Amino acid sequence: MGKWFPSIYDLLMRPLEQTKFKKIRKTLVSQAVGRVLEIGSGTGVNFPHYLDVTRVDAIEPNPLMKERALKRTERARIPIQTYLVKAEKLPFADNTFDSVVATLVFCTIPEPMKALQEIQRVSKPNAKILFFEHVRLDQAFLRKTQDILTPLWKKVCDGCHLNRDTLELIKQSNLSVLKVDSYFNGILLSIKCLNE
């Protein structure tokens, strides 16, 4: 992974954030309550959207992304503490969080099932678990295209798997899926869960 991806991430996301994409992200993130864990906070693009929360503990394994989030952390309306850690080994006690937010990150996590187990461990019973992820497509030709492009895409885009079936991984975990909303012909999903 090169240093260039974190430096252009916000630039790449800017056109998307001017569309319905921003509204989807804002709507999902604003549902978080209490003490929040954000998985893979990147450059802090979600930070302005937190409303009814007491604080956010944001984890990010990429030091360059974490560094780029500092300005958004300082401008946030609520306290945000950032950590340079991976989702597969969270440095928090059991039953700590009221909500967990993960947006466009599960595609990059090397061991997603382990990360889901950690999320369950650190979340309180009935905590809200909120995902906004791109996923493996159902249509055969597009799915095959994702499979072909993924090896190169992972190298270029910080480990991103275009073809990861994140919804199926979530269903295999012990999280209860409450609602799934599909956007942009099914490539993006907003997934609302409870830690039961």
Structure explained in plain terms:
GO terms for molecular function: methyltransferase activity. It comes from Gracilibacillus salinarum. Keywords: Methyltransferase, Transferase. It holds the Pfam family Methyltransf_11. This protein is an alpha/beta fold. It has a single domain, classed as Rossmann fold (3-Layer(aba) Sandwich), CATH 3.40.50.150. Helices cover 36% and strands 27% of the residues. The protein is built from seven helices and seven strands; from the N terminus they run ααββααββαβααββ. The chain has helices at residues 4-17, 20-29, 63-68, 70-75, 112-122, 140-156, 166-172; strands at 34-39, 53-59, 80-83, 97-103, 123-134, 175-183, 188-195. It has a seven-stranded mixed β-sheet with strand order 3-2-1-4-5-7-6, sandwiched between helices. β6 and β7 form a beta hairpin. The radius of gyration is 16 Å and the shape is globular.
The percent range for strand residues is 25-35%
Outline: globular
Q: In the CATH hierarchy, what is the superfamily? A: Vaccinia Virus protein VP39
Structural class: alpha/beta
Largest sheet: 7 strands, mixed
| Total domain count | 1
Number of DSSP helical runs: 7
Q: CATH topology, what is it called?
A: Rossmann fold
Spatially, the strands of the biggest sheet line up as 3-2-1-4-5-7-6
Order of helices and strands: HHEEHHEEHEHHEE
Helix content: 25-40%
Give me the count of strands.
7
Span of the ends, CA to CA: 36 Å
Poorly predicted regions: none
The multimeric state of the shown protein is single chain
